[in-house]
Structure formats: structure tokens, C-alpha cells
Design a protein that fits this description.
Strand order of the largest sheet: 1-2-3-7-4-5-6
Structural class: mainly beta
Number of strands: 19
Largest sheet: 7 strands, mixed
Order of helices and strands: EEEEEEHEHEEEEEEEEEEHEE
């Protein structure tokens, strides 16, 4: 059995089936485990509206009797009972190195030309699941001119993060152009032709294993992008196989102030922001 480490939790891989330990940081292995098939509650059913992004799980008491419970991501990450979730895994990922993007110190802006870049307009054209909202997320990494790798997103506490939620898109807003300002990158990206940012957007499913969103090699360094989702096909920006051919066009965004990124799955516009 092969053990892989990801941003949150571990995945134990046997062929293409996995047992995902969803709360590795807090699990107390002396306590009764909780098991789940990874099935999400259909919150479109009457009376289930408040259970969006909950999964069905089972808990055994000391006498071996099972009780059905519902879990969301917050509860899963904070409970101390080990939570095991059955999921499918990608065979390709089992052959990849364990290396992740190193969290270097953020690259400080060298001059006003690299002020920052943000997104605003966005649109998704697919509803990949049956819940009320689609969790429209983004992941990205930078390779600089020295071959160093950086995360470009910060969470609300200012910490480096591999991914962020752009928006929770209501089912009635699929195929509609929407607006929300989001800080895309504040790192130093000069010189433009030697700094490379690769990114992808996807439908996130917290109770699923990380799946490939593409990889790219520049300046002697390779970055791998992942996103937790049910199926490999649930991406919006780039087919993972094409990610390496699509670094952010920093020259165009800087000189034209913005650039659309379009395909049949969705749209996102990245802007240069100049104070």
C-alpha cells in the first residue's frame, strides 16, 4: 500500500480506490472511528436544504451498533474521532513525487510595475453536482527567474495557501456573468518573461481526494497543481493536460490592463491594478 501526503490529510492508495483520512491533524486513534462512503446529502430534497456539502457517515458505539450521522468539512476537521472516507483516486498521482510547492518568503514588490493583479468578472458554464451552490475554487503557483517556487494566494489570516474559494455560485447563476474582486497575485513577477504563474479553477469537493489539475516545468523547477474533487473532469480554466502551455500572460495584462481567459467550461478576467 502506498502512502501519499497532501495539503490536508493523507491518502492511502490501492489501485484506484482510497481510504481518505479526513482529519489527520486532530485524530485520536484511541477513539471510535467514523466511516463514510463519501456520499453527499442531496440538499435539493425537501427538508434537506440546510445540509449542503454534508456527507453521510456512520458511527459505532461500544456495543457495535451503528448510527447514521451527517458531517460537514468544519466538523470533520475539528473532531477527534478518526474519520475515514472512501473515495476514488487517480493512478497518475500515485506515481508522482511527494514534493509540493515550497512556501518561500513572499516575493516583495520591487517597483510599482508589479503592483498587483486581481480578478473580477467570472462565469461558470457547468454544474458538476446536485447541490444548490457550486464551490468555484482556484489554485496556483509561481516559478521565478531563479527556479524558486512560491504560493501566490494568502488566506484571511495572511498565511500562504494552495487554493482559495472564488465564489459559491448558485445553481440559477450557471452561464451568467458575475462579478467579485479577488486578489490574484501580489508577488514580484519581474521580469515578465522569466516569471511564470500557472493556475486552474475547479469545482471543489472537500470530502474527495486531491486530483490532478496539471503541472508545468520552467527554469529547472516543476510545480504540480491539485484540487479536491469527485472527478478529474471537473475543471473550469484549463484541461490539466494543457496547463503547461498556459502560464499567465503577464505582458498582455500589464500593457492592456486586463485579459479574458475563456473556454466552454467558464470565464475569468484578470486585471492589472495600479495604485
Amino acid at each position: 500500500m502506498l502512502e501519499l501526503e497532501f495539503g490536508v490529510g493523507k491518502v492511502f492508495v490501492t489501485t484506484i480506490s482510497v481510504l481518505l483520512l479526513g482529519n489527520i491533524e486532530n485524530a485520536d486513534y484511541t477513539k471510535q472511528p467514523i466511516f463514510s462512503s463519501g456520499t453527499y446529502v442531496n440538499n435539493q430534497l425537501a427538508g434537506q436544504e440546510h445540509y449542503e456539502d454534508y456527507i453521510v457517515a456512520w458511527f459505532a458505539d461500544s456495543e457495535g451498533n451503528f448510527s447514521e450521522i451527517l458531517l460537514n468539512e468544519e466538523t470533520t476537521l475539528t473532531t477527534t474521532h478518526p474519520i475515514f472516507i472512501i473515495d476514488n483516486a487517480e493512478v497518475e498521482i500515485t506515481h508522482r513525487p511527494k514534493s509540493r510547492v515550497k512556501v518561500e518568503q513572499p516575493k516583495q514588490l520591487e517597483n510599482m510595475a508589479t503592483s498587483w493583479y486581481s480578478s473580477n468578472e467570472y462565469q461558470i458554464n457547468h454544474r458538476y453536482e446536485n447541490s444548490t451552490h457550486s464551490e468555484f475554487c482556484i489554485t496556483s503557483a509561481q516559478i521565478d527567474e531563479k527556479g524558486l517556487t512560491y504560493l501566490i494566494f494568502r488566506d484571511f489570516n495572511g498565511n500562504d495557501t494552495e487554493w482559495r474559494t472564488l465564489a459559491d455560485v448558485h445553481k440559477n447563476d450557471i452561464n451568467k456573468l458575475l462579478y467579485r474582486w479577488f486578489s490574484f497575485c501580489r508577488n514580484d513577477v519581474l521580469p515578465f518573461n522569466q516569471n511564470f504563474i500557472f493556475w486552474n479553477t475547479y469545482e471543489r469537493d472537500w470530502a474527495k481526494s486531491p486530483k490532478n489539475l496539471g503541472y508545468a516545468t520552467k527554469n529547472g523547477a516543476t510545480i504540480y497543481l491539485y484540487g479536491r474533487r469527485q472527478y478529474t473532469s471537473e475543471w473550469y480554466a484549463y484541461n490539466p493536460a494543457q496547463l503547461a502551455n498556459n502560464p499567465v500572460d503577464l505582458n498582455t495584462i500589464y500593457n492592456s490592463w486586463a485579459k479574458w481567459h475563456d473556454n466552454s467550461n467558464g470565464r475569468l478576467k484578470i486585471w492589472r491594478i495600479q495604485p
